[in-house]
Amino acid sequence: MDQTTLQVYTVLFVFATVVLVYTARYFQRRGKRRPQRRLAGMGRIAEWTSRSIEANRPLHLALGRTAVGEDKTAIALAEAEFFHHIIEGAQASDVAPIISASAGSSLPLAQDTLRRVWSSGDHLSRAQWYPPDLAYAAAVTAMMKEDDPAAHILAGSFGAELALMIDSADRRGQGSLAVSDRLDGQAVAYAMADEVLIGEELFAAAGCVSEDGRAQVDALVLDVWRALVIMGVGIALLLEVAKRMPWLNWALVASVSAILLVFALLIYRRH
Amino acid sequence: MGRGQRYGIALSAFVAFAVGAVMTLSLLLGDNPALFGDQPGSAQLAGLLALPADVLLRLVTIVVALSILIGIANLLYVHVGRLARGKAYSAIVLASFGFTVYWYVMRPGDTSLLEAVQVPIESALAALLCLSLLHGGSRVLGKRADIWGLLFVAVVVLVLLASLPLAELAPIQAWRDWLMRVPVSAGARALLLGIALGTVVTGVRALLGQDRSFRG
After folding, report:
1. Could you say which of B85, B120, B139 is where a domain stops?
2. Does B145 reach chain A within 8 Å, measured CB to CB?
3. pLDDT at residue A7, as a whole number
4. pLDDT (mean) for A256-264
5. Cβ–Cβ contact B120 with A under 8 A
6. Which residue range(s) make up the domain with B83?
7. Contact B197 A222 (CB under 8 A)
8. Within an 8 Å CB–CB cutoff, is residue B77 touching chain A?
9. Are A226 and A200 in contact (CB under 8 A)?
10. Interchain contact, B24 vs A2, CB within 8 Å
11. Are B100 and B181 found together in one domain?
12. Spatial separation of the C-alpha atoms in residues A147 and A143, rounded to whole Å
């Protein structure tokens, strides 16, 4: 694919996303709300928030290596939105949550997220910077001892160093929910964290922990794109299979596709 | 919310939208004369369109580079506060920071402190990480007692076995190669595709000035 074609497709894709966002908002304003998809582990966040309020222990929200101003800016914004709703739920606590980051450019975002919900207190010391990678993991484990957080929401860009943090939290009886945009970090999160989000669930999480219409619309648009990509991949696969098996005919392929689509829709609606 | 605050929010949303739109158009249309056909001057036009993105990206690079100073200032602020509350670890952090700065001012170019302290500590942490991973891996089935947890453990065991340099394990190595080439590669692509879709949706939200940062 040459550069011009790629650029045209990119413009069309962005434009289609804008149209989808506004269409979803239009239907939402007219009261046609679609139930938000459930994500495993979201229920535990409410439990940890209650524990944080009752025991006056902070929640720890970690951005990891996600940096504003780099190619992970959108991930940082999605995390900030997710954290905003978690902090909103913990407003009744006497202790403000701690947000840690290993990118200096994410600190203003972290402080802004805290300031929006937490009207009083020292926001500068609750948003904390540590050097990246293993040094970050070491600093966070030290913080786990000093501040004794009720739980850790580790949503960001992490590598294998996530294992040190989750292991330490586990030994101290502190809960953990983890997700990473990196494959090594995601594998560690799946194996070790109490609760795990996988890949794009990070972007849908804000809509799951709140009733905020905008966050739910974003999650819905993400669902639509996801379904379209799955259908596209499925059709491409079927065409490839049909090419290799000359005895297949279009009617059979179309029938099987239709049955699979119905099954997929049924499973999707049940969840 | 006061009128001034409302105007401030509207202004910041407008600036975000304007900068986002200019940046997107500049990145998409700039530096690609083929988009404008064989017209004379199409190369200059493409170069001109690429200019805003170039300038803004340079600005971002400078700001991001400076952000390390924000991080260091925050680290010092947090640990001075903790020291005031009698936390001993913070005294060590601040003393180490002061000593390192002193060392590099007095002996510029000398990396012996880095080699004697930083490298061994990071190596020790890496060794600890290995143990933590092993410990975590051993408890997967305790945390995820379902078919997926079982599959996870089975794949880990298979990959570890296939890594052993034994001729008897050649069939397992072939399985490992297939696993890495087909299901692992497909899963990794699916994850990255999902993240890319999420990035686009969040990017569009920011581009439309709808992100919480611009909503006050």
Report:
1. B139
2. no
3. 76
4. 80
5. no
6. 1-107
7. yes
8. yes
9. yes
10. no
11. no
12. 6
Question: CB A204 to CB B198 under 8 A?
Answer: yes
C-beta of residue A257 within 8 angstroms of C-beta of residue A238:
yes
Q: Are strands A151-157 and A127-129 parallel, antiparallel or unpaired?
A: unpaired
**Distance separating alpha carbons of residues A177 and A195, to the nearest angstrom:** 5
Q: What is the pLDDT of residues B116-129, one digit of tens each?
A: 888 898 899 888 88
CB contact under 8 A, B29 and A78: no
Higher pLDDT among residues A174 and B12, named by residue: A174
What pLDDT score was predicted for residue A91? 84
Q: In b/e form, how buried is each residue of B133-171, taking b as 16+ CB within 10 angstroms?
A: beebbeebeebbeeeebeebbeeeeebeebeeeeeeeee
Per-residue pLDDT of B68-87, as tens digits, reads 888 899 989 989 988 888 88
pLDDT tens per residue across span A92-109: 888 889 999 998 888 888
3-state DSSP assignment of residue B139: coil
Q: A128 and B74: CB-CB below 8 Å?
A: yes
In 3D, which of A16, A110, A20, A15 has the Cα closest to residue A63?
A: A110
Q: How far is CA A116 from CA A2, A80, A111, A120, A177, in A?
A: 45, 11, 9, 10, 23
**How far is the C-alpha of B203 from the C-alpha of A106, rounded, in Å?**
16
CB contact under 8 A, A164 and B71: no
Q: Are the CB atoms for A202 and A181 separated by under 8 Å?
A: yes
* Residues B175 and B132 placed together within one structural domain of the fold: no
Give A17-72 pLDDT, tens digit per residue. Answer: 888 888 888 888 877 666 677 787 788 888 999 999 999 899 999 998 888 887 88
Listed residues B107, B127, B158: the one ending a domain: B107
Partners of residue B75 in chain A, C-beta under 8 Å: 128-130
Q: Say whether both B132 and B154 belong to one domain.
A: no
Neighbour tally for A154: CB within 10 Å:
28
- B67 pLDDT tier (thresholds 50, 70, 90): confident
Look at the pTM and tell me if it is higher than 0.90: no
What does the pLDDT read at residue A169?
93
Structural domains in chain B (count): 3
Domain map of chain A by residue range? 3-33+215-270, 42-209
SS3 B162: helix
Is there a single domain that holds both residue B80 and residue B171? no
Within an 8 Å CB–CB cutoff, is residue B128 touching chain A?
A: yes
Contact A121, A153 (CB under 8 A): no
What kind of architecture, by CATH, is found in domain A42-209?
A: 3-Layer(aba) Sandwich (3.40)
Residue from the list A10, A77, A226 with its beta carbon closest to the beta carbon of B211 = A77
Please indicate, yes or no, whether residues B131 and B99 belong to a single structural domain of this protein. Answer: no
Q: What is the ipTM of this complex?
A: 0.84
